[in-house]
Amino acid sequence: MSTPQTRSRRLRILLVVLLLAAGAGFFTWWKLFRRVPTYYASPEEHFKYGSIGVEAPAGIPYWIWLVLPRIFPDKLPGPGGYIALGASWEMGREVPIGFTKEIVGIPRVGVNCASCHTASVRTTPADAPKFYLGAPSSRFQAQGYVRFLFACAHDPRFNSATIMREILAIYKMSWVDRFLYRYLIIPFTKRQILQTETRDYYWMPERPDWGPGRTDMNPFQRQVMRLPDDHTIGSTDVMAIWNERAHEGFFHHSDGLNTTLVESVRSAALAAGATKSSIDIPSLDRVQAWLMDLPAPKYPYAIDAALAARGRAVFDSQCAACHAFGGARTGKVVPVSEVGTDRHRVDHWPQSSADAFNHWADGYPWAFHHFRSSNGYVALALDGVWLRAPYLHNGSVPSLTDLLEPQEKRPKVFYRGYDVYDQEHAGFVSSGAEAERTGFRYDTAVPGNSNQGHLYGTDLPAADKRALVEYMKTL
Amino acid sequence: MQPEEITPVEADQRHRTWRAVSIVVIALFAVSCYLYRVFNPNYPVVYNDIREHFKYGSIGTEPMNGVPYWIWKVLPEMFPEKLPGPGPGYASLGFLYEPGRDLPIGMARRRVYLDRVGLNCAVCHTGTLRETPSSPRRIILGMPANNLDLQAYFRFLAACVSDGRFTADNVLLAIQTHTRLDPLERLAYRAAVWETREVVLQRKQLISFMDSRPDWGPGRVDTFNPYKTVQFRFPMDHDATIGTTDLPSIWNQKPREGMQLHWDGNNTSLEERNKSAALGGGVTPVSVDLAAMKRIEDWLRDELQPPPYPYAVDDNLARQGEALYQAHCASCHAFGSAYVGKVTPIAEIGTDPHRLDSFTYEFAANMGTLFAGYPYRFTHFRKTQGYANMPLDGVWLRAPYLHNGSVPTLRDLLEPPENRPKVFYRGYDVYDSHKAGFVSDVPEENGRKYFRYDTAVPGNGNGGHLYGTKLKDAEKAALVEYMKKL
Amino acid sequence: MADDILFQPLAFRNLTVKNRIVRSNIAGRFDNYDGSGGYARINWEEKFARGGVGAILSSFVPVSIRGRIMPNYATIHADNRVPFWRAVGERVHQHGCKYILQLSHSGRQQDIGGVENLRRKALSSTGRTESQNGFLCQAMTPGEIRQTVADFAQGARRAREAGLDGVELHGANGYLITQFLSSGINDRQDEYGGPLENRARFVLEIVEAIRKEVGRDFHLQVKINGEDRGNAVYPWEKKGNTLPETVQVCQWLEQAGVDALHVSCGSSFPHPLNPPGGFPVDWAVKTYDIMISSGVFVFQRYLLMRYRPLRPLFRYFWEHSKGEVIEGINAEAARAVKQAVKIPVLCTGGFQTASFIRKVIGEGCCDAVSIARSLVANPDLVQIFASGRDRPEKPCTYCNKCLVNAIKNPLGCYELSRFDGDYDRMIQEVMSVFEPSPFAQ
Lengths: 475, 486, 441
Known about the structure:
Strand content of chain B: 5-15%
Radius of gyration of chain A: 25 Å
Helix content of chain A: 25-40%
Oligomer: heterotrimer
């Protein structure tokens, strides 16, 4: 029997329970899910440090991210924390370029376009590096970064006690946050990293290492689309993304698998870790708009103008048809049978993947429609080519000078990731003690790493080659 | 439902229950108060006088890197053989004791469950001066510590805690000769012995790479290299850099605002430079006592001035010297000049490059993570390519000269490198008013050995800074005479 | 037998008793809740009259409801109680036994107040909470004192109207009159507190009022503590009145026209020395719980009994001041009183041995002895003595199980060893007080 009295009593209890549940829900949302989008007034700052929507699904809680290099220096290739993994860290900043600190409940660190698309350049080893935005990264090891996280998560030291001890030594955290970190965030982060390894990156161990400045289309197909592993190799050199207005209408990606910039930008964000629900389209649109007119950087060293002038004539006759803006084949795909370079990357992206991706985001306003498969590599316009070393789609030739040599004279083994510029050869220093110590040993014999093909200009007289290289520094 | 009126017994029992609860609460409170009084977690000994505060006040080094007071007190008694020379105690390491003072200058006391002592700014920035070997010692605040061998102090602590005799029983026994600890404190000290060993050994292990570098000697410190491991745990297998520098004076900071500070000019913010120095002294972002530091910072910026040269100056000679100074030095070293507080490229200045090279880009970038989460996170550290031009206020007291303290006197600095002393002794505080600097040829005094400084040792090079070396001897004498007045 | 002092009549001023054995004050919860009389009480008293005692001193009979010790105890607070007491007297008289009614007021020592008293504190000389059970109380106003004195006088009048042989004022064992008399309890600042004469004022006023109400020719005696021993349980409590003070009070009572004195001890009830003997904790945990809501310390004290590890604490307090003597424990006090007064003196306290009783009377300690527990065990004790036996075959063991049962269960002897371990026979004996029943055929 329920009298009106007991009914109102039950109602009151229900109300209290609902209020408590709502309070708990709000607290959970506030502390773990509330996104406070980072906004930088300057589009350049936004490119360097703004979020593209990676933090919620794949961000590492800031305090964990900060102390990992201090707890696991043994898992880094050298001193400098994340700089040892090639991060471009502007002095005085809290995170390196290409890393974002955004509050999703708690501050989390994700990556953005700039992590792979910022080059670090030093004139001498003692210099602090200068950073070039939009350039292919010269040092950043995307693979090294995820492997570092995997290795940390596998280590028994990745536990709440160790990590909290390290955090609390440098930061007076609130009691609520301490509790959340100790019992929720740290264990969950560990699980999430390990899950990412087995679910999204299971294919990685059997592929050749990327090394610094290179990436792979595999994450696209395995992590984003969950296509079954076809064991193909997708390693490619990271591309320059500046001056996009001049590149309009060109094919994108090294094999030209898309014809629209907007889809290339958005799909790259997905590969970086954004998901359908987290991807920040307005942010990406802002980046894209800025890239339209981001100029290719001028060569910062002395140029022999006379020599360059001679080189221009050689360029016009030998290269311009494919590589000058306005050239007949510039921005178009040249069949791999014709250019003769390593074909792994072309074979890596079949039509089936393109079809799948064109339907992958159906129903979203930003769904993809322009992916396709090709039979070759795009002949790129060469603006800022001096900074785009090493060369060819797989980054297999360290300098422009080397590229003008036949395959047998190109370096068979060299070192990537050392960012001191080699003005003589137009590329980064790729040999010598320091390059060997800090760089990645690039072996052209490894599948996908071949430096074959693109023999244009290899039979020019040496003087012409020198002049041509000098001219190309001006592009 | 009508509430049932309670009986007098029930009312009384409720009353008693409340009283019992109150008594328990009050008792718990009282016990907490007692424990808080005995082990009050964190309060420093406070000095109202700013000079006392500078000498003995805490800046927050004690919580993480302090040594429990009584342990610190008894170490020299337990292990006198580990001290480098005649004491008493820590004085043999160059710590300065004022009469009637329990602790030396630069050593602060703070309660962190137990009373602990830790370093403060004054330890590296207070020096002494004697006119003759028999004159009284004058203590001067803000000048570079010319006595203190900080490295020897750290090594002494590490040697003590590594000794098998460093046990709780032995330490308590030694403490007993000074004071009676209550049983709770004895228990706490047992734990403190263990904790001190852990903390000191961990620090020793972190900076063990310093052992493969040349010794600092008194008045010098490698400021930044220890940060690489202490703060960032950088692997040091490929880092052989030497960052040892002379301690600087810290008076008269106001006109230095905005200058490139530190020897290589790696930071333009006074606040960051100060906090960075505090980190070196042993504070952490959590333990730093910002209010206590602010008092010192304000005083150093607005009040503390270099002491005037106390001996006779030949004014005529100095007047001649002033003209030379204006011609040869002022553009880089006078307040208000074009290049003062700016970095002169290493190729131009030509002094020993080790210190410059030890402050790497990777390190500079990581400095941006210090004090993360606080509004005063470091944002000003930069890699530079030379050494900064220092203002020369009170320069007569800042000997030996150059960033690594490789030239004993001003007069020597005006000689070309080949004529500068190749080997000399540091740590002696008798003033050489002829050459303007400390007497540097005394290897030993009353059993106390001074540090043999060999300019051939890496990092100790006395080359470079050739300005004025081509002047005539008379001109050099005049210039030195004038510089005594700066 | 003619020359046996035990069987010599004892002549009081207004009353003569046939021998020197008097049933002391004892009864159970035999009546109706409100204190109107029950047939069991008549059965109870007859049991002893039949056994041959010279007189029966009734148990505690409250002169007001507020002065009761527990419900189901017959009162004399109203005229409508007179017929019952007349019936009791008549039944006792049938056996040649006298009946003296004990006029009583609990004061603060109210074990179970009953619903009538639930919402008020007990009256006392003091406002201080009682120390053993934590009974709450308030200090009586002069008006309340006057009213209570009148209640006593009216009680005496009703006893006389009921044809009883006399009254006894319960001035012992911690009840209201003791609360005034005892220097350990009475903390009044007015004319009823302070020096002994002030503390005695209350009882003397009662005596005066009774005399005024019933005249000089009605037997009136006073039961009084030889010594209060107020610190017998808790050593930090005050000691209370000493023997010389009691003797002084007795002299004043004699002067005021009291006909006899009855010497007991202990300024609380029970008290380690009264009734002397053991304390059956195992039984107490079955009965003491009934008092938990009565006082503010009962629960704690109950826990001390209930949990065995805590019992030593209880035992320490209860037993630390107790001596070895049981029988004749008050004999010396009685002797001191007797030497100071001319009126007869009764003495209570463990008497059970004929030769010992002869000795104390013979030595001039008292003129008669009063016996409670030994008579509960053997109601025919007088006949046993008359038959020449010095002690009963199954004597009272002084276990005090009757005492701790009294607050909850019918009064009787609960000492199983006296029934050869036969529990049913023991209960049958206890229940015999309800036979005959008025409605039974």
